[in-house]
Design goal:
This protein is an alpha/beta fold. The chain has helices at about 10-25, 50-60, 75-80, 105-115, 135-145, 160-165, 195-205, 215-220, 260-270, and strands at about 1-5, 50, 65-70, 85-90, 125-130, 150-155, 210-215, 240, 275-280. Helix content is about 30%, strand content about 10%.
């Protein structure tokens, strides 16, 4: 579960805004009344998102410091991916030795993964997927372990937007050379990005905090259980906003995040506002 602090120092506020961008797109308009979809969404931190046109330009220039990360299952990746992209899937960033499924990979496991992908500490990662949270999960894990935030970008519209622009895809996997990589020393993890069970229980009793369930309606109602979940249902007393509420449903920008103004409206009607601490799952 992710914790977002609404009342804390500037660094934590910036991290909180980025988490909203990546997990649900909850960032707010600076000015203007017209709500437009990305790439003109009025976001406070638009630099987190890279548009397909920007990525294509960097690739045409053969920028040596970008690494494209495809967060999809192997068969989808091999059927066609952005040229040069390396493939990662959810089990790669989960703790392989934990008794519970889906727990965050340990630091050493993440370092080994980054080394195997040929990623150095100078690289900027361009992340995309085709699922509701897979790419943002990768961002969250690396952000927690101290990977520089300015060196991680989410591809706007994901691979569908790349294809709709007529840009090429390739099959097969590129050859990469293993490199030495180390995340920041212990103690530099970004604490606000992770919360504990006692903190969640306490938050449920505090009007200045919101425990937010962003799963599908069927999961929220207990009618459907994702693979690995120990039981159906939800935490009693939580607020529910399905993750799809943050995405454009149709048209040219289908699958992109909605404008900041639209997202602010969706979340504020459920009591999720910037001054509150938000605990999300």
């Amino acid at each position: 579960m992710v914790r977002i602090n609404g009342k804390t120092n500037q660094l934590r506020k910036w991290i909180a805004l980025l988490i909203f961008v990546l997990a649900f797109g909850l960032i707010f308009m600076v000015a203007g009344r017209t709500a437009q979809a990305v790439p003109n969404g009025g976001y406070v931190h638009p630099e987190v998102i890279m548009q397909p046109q920007e990525l294509k330009a960097l690739m045409d220039k053969k920028d040596p410091d970008i690494r494209i990360i495809d967060i999809r299952e192997k068969l989808k990746y091999l059927a066609g991916h952005i040229p040069g992209a390396v493939q990662v899937w959810r089990p790669d960033i989960e703790d392989k030795n934990h008794s519970l499924p889906g727990m965050m990979a340990l630091k050493g496991q993440m370092e080994d993964l980054l080394e195997s992908l040929g990623i150095s500490d100078q690289d900027t990662l361009i992340i995309y997927s085709d699922g509701p949270d897979n790419g943002r999960l990768w961002w969250w894990v690396l952000a927690y372990y101290g990977f520089p935030l300015k060196q991680m970008r989410i591809l706007g519209g994901s691979i569908d937007a790349w294809k709709s622009n007529g840009y090429p895809v390739e099959v097969g996997a590129p050859k990469v050379e293993r490199v030495k990589f180390r995340l920041p020393e212990k103690g530099q993890e970004r604490g606000p990005l992770l919360c504990t069970l006692p903190e969640v229980k306490s938050a449920l009793k505090n009007p200045d905090r919101v425990v937010l369930d962003v799963r599908s309606k069927k999961e929220f109602l207990g009618e459907e259980t994702r693979k690995g979940a120990p039981k159906a249902g939800r935490i009693p007393g939580v607020t529910w906003i399905e993750w799809t509420e943050a995405l454009v449903g149709e048209g040219l920008y289908k699958g992109y995040w909605k404008s900041a103004e639209e997202i602010k409206r969706v979340f504020s009607t459920k009591g999720v506002t910037p001054e509150k601490d938000v605990f999300m799952y």
